[in-house]
Amino acid sequence: MIAMVDCNSFYASCEQVFRPDLWGKPVVVLSNNDGCIIAANTEAKALTHIAMFEPVFKIKDVLIKNKVIFFSSNYTLYGEMSQRVMNILGDFSPSVEVYSIDEAFVDVLGVTENLDAYGTKIKERIFKYTGLPVGVGIAPTKVLAKLANKMAKKIPDTNHVFIIDTEEKRLQALRWAKTKDVWGLGRKHVQRLEKINVFSAYQFTQVPLQWVRKEMTVVGERLWRELRGESCIEFATMPKPKKAIGTAKSFGIKLPDLERIEEACAYYISEVAEVLRAQNSCATYVQVFVMTNYHSNVDKQYSNSKTVTMPIPTNDTFALIKEARKALHLIYKPGYRYKKVGVNLTGLIPQEYVQGNLFLPSKLNDKNLIRTFDMLNNKYGKSTVASAMTGTRMGEWELIKKERSKRYTTQWRELLKI
DNA sequence: TCTGGGGTCCTAGGACCC
DNA sequence: TCTGGGGTCCTAGGACCC
To answer: Which end of chain A has fewer beta carbons closer than 10 Å to its terminal beta carbon, N or C?
Structure first.
């Protein structure tokens, strides 16, 4: 059996842990640049106009009228709270698959006690140790566990724990769930299924397998089998090394000139290169893309991307910036108001397997330089030393975060006062 | 006259997730 | 005025190899 543990309205809950004065009040958390709503607590969700990913400017009136409290996103805080939750889950089982920042699969193989009691214990301990509310679903396959978790959240008298351990419970779950409630059935598949009059998870499991395979590929077939109780999706305790590391952020303002975009691009490369070094990998390809604001009706639209191959796969910030800059120059066109630049490192290989290049001299000092660079930034804080390419005018393109909460768990000066 | 068979690698596009 | 960011997996088609 597999337990799926998922935090309720995770970002909003994290904010509320440190603000008891907001308990019982509607709270939302906003995306970068305070653009969209990306999390809302129960009280905020109850106000019907607050939908996920709704642009804030469209519903500002509703927010103000209902005295909704809003926060800019504070990923440092959420990441650290997530770590605490995962650590607690580690006490329950040696096999935990961290699936996202706010949810994990827990292998409950070998648990002899009543599963309802076990799920409740997980829920209560996490709340006691972190202040975060969670839901727990336990079932024989991952897809069913996700479904059980959803039921634990949505059905009031489950007390946030739901177990699928009998055929009867499985059928109850399948009949309760609409197709869109199934993990892995997105908008397109739901539409496709509607066309053949399939609306519930149960109906989906009755569709002939050949149809599913043909229309929804092997991905659909796995879902179909998992819902019928046959486990097809592996349990992955060890996180796999990432295959791509990228970042792309909208600017706080629209930028026309190349120089500022170059700075942002260099800054993003510095960020992803740090992540790359942390997993001891090197990148073979660097992709850079730019785009204008596609929501705008008045601005001329343009977007483009370019991938360049590194002479030798590397994780050296300076070498990566150099190639990224070349790529950027190939796609930048003057006369547009750019909204976003992004970088993506792909072709990631383990550091120790990097193939040299016969025709290029190897530079001896690179490793020491970048090691010192990381050491200084670890010790004295982010961007203490940086490539000059990132410029000194960060304020002109950095993110808007007007309502960010304090970094209660990572900065001494911002500790909560009681 | 008649022109094979078995593969790999790469990319773009589609679909999905949180 | 103002609309997020970071990923994975699968398939088809092109280019290439022996």
So the answer is: C
Burial of A371 (0-12, 13-18, 19+ CB in 10 A): exposed
Is A135 a domain residue? yes
Residues with CB under 7 A from strand B: A 99-103, 146, 182-190, 285, 307
Within 7 A of a protein CB, which nucleotides of strand B? 11-12, 14-18
Distance from residue A145 (CA) to nucleotide B12 (C1'), in Å? 34
User: For residue A83, is it within any domain?
Assistant: yes
Residue A304, in any domain of the structure: yes
* Dihedral sign, Cα of residue A312, residue A315, residue A316, residue A320: positive
Global pTM reads 0.90
pLDDT digits (tens, 9 = 90+) for A215-233: 998 999 999 999 999 999 9
Nucleotide nearest to A102 (CA to C1'): B18
SS3 A302: coil
Residue A25 is part of a domain; what is its CATH number?
3.30.70.270
Q: Is the residue at A20 inside a domain?
A: yes
